[in-house]
Amino acid sequence: MNEKNKNLLMMGVLLLFGYGLFQQNNSTDHVFRNADINEEEILDHIIYLADDGMAGRYPGTRTSKDAISYISKFWRSVGLKPGGENRSFVQPFDISSGVEIGDQTSFSVSEISLTNGIDFTPLSFSGNGSLSAGAVFVGYGFDMDDDKKWKDYENIDVQGKWAIVMRGGPEQIHPHSIYAAHAPMNKKMMVARDHGAVGIIFVSQKGDDGLVGFDHTTSASKGGIPAIHLSIDQVNQLFQAQNKSVASLQEKMDSDLKSVQFDLGDVVLSAHVDLQEKKIRGGNVVGFIRGRDHQLRNEYIVIGAHFDHLGMGGHHTGSRNKDTTAVHNGADDNASGTAGILELSHKMYANRSQLKRSMVFIAFDAEEKGLLGSKHFVENPAVPLDKIVAMFNLDMVGRLKDSTFNVGAIGTSPVFEPLLDKMAEESILSINKSYSGYGPSDHASFYTKDIPVLFFFSGFHEQYHLPEDDWPLINTKGEKDILDFVYDLSMTINRAEERPLFTEAGSKEPPKRRRSDGVTLGIIPAYGGGDEEGMEIDGIASKDGPAGKAGMKKGDILIEINGKKLLNIREYMGRMAELKKGQKITVKVLRDGKPLMLDVQL
């Protein structure tokens, strides 16, 4: 080998060596040797999870999978036992990410095909399927029983036909308009269906020439009727044979404040709607430490934190700056909580000889999309739910100020408050206490299952749900103090002879923003739902509420209110808006596949 080749070989070896060092330094297989909770390792975890390269850890993305891998590898290196599927740490589940228009979607007028996106568009709440039928114009599509008595479906038959309705109402729709509650398109679709229409076509008012933007974040109604928005140009062509136009019809209805109705005769409108639900794959990460007491080790304490965040932000993500597309690092929310459960698990495993009960550590996915990971776990628990004695949730624990942090849900067991008060007396930290068991984080899923919970939180800040929530703002000393407190509390509960007694502490459903005259059944809807028509009930908020007194149960599928069909949670909300306090109604539910009628006093 000549000198030149020797030099080239040596350069190649050095390059490979250097690349190997780079890979080692940038690997997620970092060795955390100190089993004690320490600031350096807290920050190491947060810096990795909140790095710009992690792109905000949005559920289902490659970087979300990187976070799952990081947590799994850490727990494997520490010695925790996997609690997911197929002897892994991962508990996978599907997440609905909206709906898209399939290639087979079409619309035609008397066999003349129109162009999707230019002449028409299906609406995101449309039902799927094919339909060919005649059509009837029914004004604004109202069925109002109030002072105006505006009833567009009186004296005309829409049974088995398309209902063509104008969007909006006869005046500018504002919150105090008498037409506001009747103007939403989904509401108009329900009214059309109630009167026997088999499809609905929406027409924009004059001057509004564009089609409604398709909302990809909304899932299609299972079993609903086809819902189409037709362009003004196409509608005007459709109405030519009747010597009518969108402008003339609107002017007449708005001036007379009366309905205009007519049948389109022999015209046949045909549609095939093919909306396809998009799903992404999420996953919780679950690890175990087995307790040493033969009597108590089959009981469990869960310590959890969500690891997901908002990705690149934008509309429908939860970002407070909806018009900004940028990495939402989520250092405090909730890389801080994830770092916390990693450090707690390491220390507890090192001191596992002191554990009587077993410990379950869970990094939840898709919390920001509606507590989906924790809801999936409690519906598919890796351990029996009745053996979980307590659940502690860490969400945003990295921005401690003035040595004061928040502990929520202390009313869920009578042992919590005196124990926390005693510990606070011996701690450098002060506690702000709140009692309600329900809260906007993953502990709420466990509270609805009658499990005592505590929620640890260092407080809101200006960077919440913004790209500026990044690791340089983390107070590592403050987080370590909180984690030391949680560790001592967990060990105390773990080693106690008696498990904490559960007590109900407030509603098991989120607070509602509703009109003062609004009504509620007192149920917890199962957001997302299954394949069935109707709305599954995830729980009863109170046994003394209307649903509780009527005998409704968790797992019931609500399919009718006062004889009117409902398909999903959106339609449930629409049906409830029609009701008044003090009214007695009849609901139909499916229980174990069998219909059951129940009387409910609101």
- What is the fourth-level CATH superfamily of the largest domain? Zn peptidases
Radius of gyration: 29 Å
User: What share of residues is helical?
Assistant: 25-40%
- Figure out the total of helices: 13
What is the CA-CA span between the terminal residues?
93 Å
Q: Which of globular, elongated, flat, extended, rod-shaped describes the shape? A: elongated
Number of strands: 25
Q: CATH topology of the largest domain, which one?
A: Aminopeptidase
Largest beta-sheet details:
9 strands, mixed
Uncertain runs with pLDDT below 50, 5 residues or more? 1-29
CATH class of the largest domain: Alpha Beta
Domain unit count: 4
Report the sheet-strand fraction: 15-25%
* Helix and strand composition category: alpha/beta
**Under the CATH scheme, which architecture of the largest domain would be assigned?**
3-Layer(aba) Sandwich
Mean pLDDT: 89
Structure explained in plain terms:
This protein is of the alpha/beta class. It is built from 13 helices and 25 strands. It has helices at 3-25, 39-49, 62-78, 185-194, 232-239, 246-256, 331-350, 372-379, 416-425, 443-447, 476-495, 546-550, 569-576, and strands at residues 81-82, 90-101, 106-109, 112-113, 120-122, 129-133, 135-138, 162-166, 199-203, 227-230, 261-263, 269-273, 275-289, 300-306, 358-364, 388-394, 404-408, 430-433, 453-457, 523-525, 535-540, 557-561, 564-565, 584-591, 594-601. Strands 1, 2, 13, 14, 15, 16, 17, 18 and 19 form a nine-stranded mixed sheet that branches. Strands 5-10-9-8-7-11 form a six-stranded mixed sheet. Strands 20, 21, 22, 23, 24 and 25 form a six-stranded antiparallel sheet that branches. β14, α7 and β15 form a beta-alpha-beta unit. α2 (39-49) packs across α7 and α7 crosses α11. The protein is elongated, with a radius of gyration of 29 Å. The N and C termini lie far apart (93 Å).
